[in-house]
Amino acid sequence: MMTTPALPTKDRLIQSAATLFRTRGYHGVGLADLLSHAKAPKGSLYHHFPNGKSDLAMAAATWASDQMLRLIAASFDGAKTFKDGATTLCFKLAKLFDLTGWDTCPIAATLFEGPDNTEFRAHASHIYEGWIAEVHDHAERFGLPEDEAQTNAENLFVLIQGGWMLARARRDSDVLRTLPALL
Amino acid sequence: MMTTPALPTKDRLIQSAATLFRTRGYHGVGLADLLSHAKAPKGSLYHHFPNGKSDLAMAAATWASDQMLRLIAASFDGAKTFKDGATTLCFKLAKLFDLTGWDTCPIAATLFEGPDNTEFRAHASHIYEGWIAEVHDHAERFGLPEDEAQTNAENLFVLIQGGWMLARARRDSDVLRTLPALL
DNA sequence: ACAGGAATAGACCGATTGGTCCAGCGTCGA
DNA sequence: TCGACGCTGGACCAATCGGTCTATTCCTGT
Questions:
Q1: Which of B27, B109, B160 sits opposite A162 (nearest CB)?
Q2: What is the mean pLDDT of chain B?
Q3: CA geometry: angle at B80 spanning B77 and B81, to 5°?
Q4: Percent of chain B that is helix, strand, coil (3-state, to 5)
Q5: Residues in A touching B24 (Cβ below 8 Å)
Q6: pLDDT digits (tens, 9 = 90+) for A78-106
Q7: Least CB-packed of A77, B35, B121, B142 within 10 Å?
Q8: What is the complex's ipTM, to 2 decimals?
Q9: Which tens digits make up the pLDDT trace of B101-156?
Q10: pLDDT greater than 60 at residue A3
Q11: What is the CA radius of gyration of chain B?
C-alpha cells in the first residue's frame, strides 16, 4: 500500500504509477489518484515529466520491465538446465502473484490500453522482446542451438502471459506453477 | 468501420461497445465515442441499459464471449482428433487477428480494466471458464479421460491468451499458428 | 382512429479529467 | 549575503466525463 516515503519524488511518482496502472489500467487512473498515492503535488509531476501522464507511463513501464528482467536473471542464474530456470521463474512469479494480488501484466495495462499513440505500442513491443531476448541468452548459455533457444524463449513468454491471465481470473496462482510441464 | 445500419439500436450499442472497448479498454471509451459510433442518442442507451456504461459493458462482454464459443464449436465440430480441432481453432483465430487488427482479448479489455466492481471480475471469470468448459467437452467427446480433458482445455486457453498478446505486440499473427506444436 | 407504451432525441448537470501557470521554497556556488 | 535554480505547492482552466430528465416520435393492439 504505502510507497517508501524516503524515496525521491520522481521515483515515488514512477512506482505509484506502476502500481496504479497495473491494477486499474492507464485510463482508469486519474492524476488526482496518482498524485495523492505518491504524495506529490501536481507541479512536481510536470517538472519531472514535461509531457505529463504519458511520459510518466513510459517511465513506469520501463521500471516495471527492469524488475522483470532482474527476476528472469535471478531465476536462470542458479539453474542447472534451461527447464530448471524456467521452472523457478514460474514459481517466483506465482509467489509474486500471491503477494501483489490479481493485477494485470504491468506493461499491457500501462501501454496497450494507453493512448493510440504509436510510441506506446513500440515501447511495449520493445520491452517484451527484451524479456524474450534475456531468456534466449540464458537458453544459449545452457548449450541450446540458436533457433531452439528462440522458440523456447517465445514459448515461455506465451505460457507466462496466458497463465498469468487465467490465474488472475481465478484469483489463484496454481496455474502458474503447472506451466513448466508444457515445455 | 460501419456497424450494420439495419440492426436494432440495442444490438448496435452492444456491438459498438464490444469493438471500442476491445481496442481502447473500458475507461478509454467515453459515452460520446460510444454513441456516435453506434449512431444512437443518449436516451436510447439508458433506456436499454438502465445502469448505463457498466450494464452495456457486461452485455458487450457476453456478446463477444458467445462469438468465441461459436468459433470453438466450429473448430472442433469438423475435427478428427482433439489436436486437429485445437489447430484449426488457432488458425481461425490467427485469421481473425489479421482481420480485426491488433486488439486485446475483448473480455480482458472490457471487464478487467473496468470498475473495481466485483460483478465485473466475476463475469469475466465466468466467461473464461465457459470457454474452457466448451473445449473440455469437445476433448471428452474425442475420448480423453476427464482430467486430461481438463488440463488440455486449460493449456489451450493459456496458449491462446499468451499467444494473442505476443501477436499483438508484434502486429503479426504468426505466433498463433505455431501454438498447436506446444500441445 | 386512437390510446399508450416503447423508443428516440438531445438539452442540461455537477464532478472530474489532464494540463497550465506562477508564487514560494530550500539549497547551492560565488 | 545574495542570486540562481531545482523543486514544490496548489489555484485555476477548458474540456470531457457519466448520468438525469423531459419532450417528442414511432409503433402496435384494439
A1: B160
A2: 95
A3: 100
A4: 75, 0, 25
A5: 27, 113, 116
A6: 999 999 999 999 999 999 999 998 889 99
A7: A77
A8: 0.93
A9: 888 999 999 988 888 889 999 999 999 999 999 999 999 999 999 999 999 999 99
A10: no
A11: 17
**Using N-to-C axis directions, what is the helix angle for B82-100 and B118-141, rounded to 10°?**
140
Nearest CA in chain A to B180: A155
B168/A26 touch (CB, cutoff 8 Å), yes or no: no
Q: Is the CB of B41 under 7 A from strand D?
A: no
pLDDT at A5: 52
**Sequence letter at residue B49:** F
CA–CA separation, B180 and A89 (whole Å): 23
pLDDT at A2 over 50: no
Does residue B4 have a pLDDT over 60? no
Closest chain A residue by Cα to residue B152: A182
**Residue found by looking up cell 489500467 in the block:** A25
Four-point Cα dihedral B37, B39, B43, B47, nearest 10: -80
Sign of the CA dihedral with B10 first, then B11, B14, and B20 last: negative
CA→C1' distance for A37 and D20 (Å): 32
Chain D footprint positions (protein CB, under 7 Å): 7-12, 16-23
